[in-house]
């Protein structure tokens, strides 16, 4: 059984001041097994982020199903799941990394990463140690650990965002341009974490514009332009930006 299967998925948005409803994506179909990594590629505005946000249920899908093989609930349709089920899955099973950091004010960098672990019932001492290890891995200056991240640079905020999501080692991890504002060295740190998560069984869905970065990690690629799924092992498969 696939860990995630999206069937005939579609999402529309209403532009109220124009009185129009516009399709964002239509007839999206793909699936992936536990431990696989699928990359979604396409032009800006093609609906890549809409797919990820619908899996995470930031958006409520309009058509189709998003079947997820949950550890807690068994096979569940994320398009129809109750809010309490979605909240549980976000807390314990599904992680999301966006390009933007949106956190509670007056919460330090260290506290944010610790909180991600405490939510999963980690003992406080263990959460502290794992948080420090994650911050060290992504080379956030220790001077920033007890500072508020609203003053951070874009790259620092993104590294913190990735640390908060990956430290929980989710069953399913959604990555929306996680390397967008990172230098090459920082990208390598992200690669190391993704490889470790994948090796431990985490399933991943990711959007990248850095094609070389994605090509070495993904097992398959979903092309928005043609809405086709291509396996990495197939001869002649190329990547499109």
From TrEMBL:
What domain of life does the native source organism fall in?
Answer: Bacteria
| Main location, first listed in the record | membrane
Which controlled-vocabulary keywords does the entry list?
Answer: ATP-binding, Cell membrane, Membrane, Nucleotide-binding, Translocase, Transport
- InterPro entries (alphabetical): AAA+_ATPase, ABC_transporter-like_ATP-bd, CP_lyase_PhnL, ECF_ABC_transporter_ATP-bd, P-loop_NTPase
Q: Which residues form the ABC transporter domain?
A: 4-241
Q: How does it sit in the membrane?
A: Peripheral membrane protein
Q: Which SMART domains is this protein grouped with?
A: AAA
For this chain, one GO molecular function annotation is: ATPase-coupled transmembrane transporter activity
Question: Could you tell me where this protein is found in the cell?
Answer: Cell membrane
- Note one Pfam family from the annotation: ABC_tran
Q: Which GO terms describe its cellular component?
A: ATP-binding cassette (ABC) transporter complex
Indicate whether Nucleotide-binding appears among the record's keywords. yes
The entry sums up its family as follows: Belongs to the ABC transporter superfamily.
NCBIfam families recorded: CP_lyasePhnL
The protein depicted here goes by the name Alpha-D-ribose 1-methylphosphonate 5-triphosphate synthase subunit PhnL
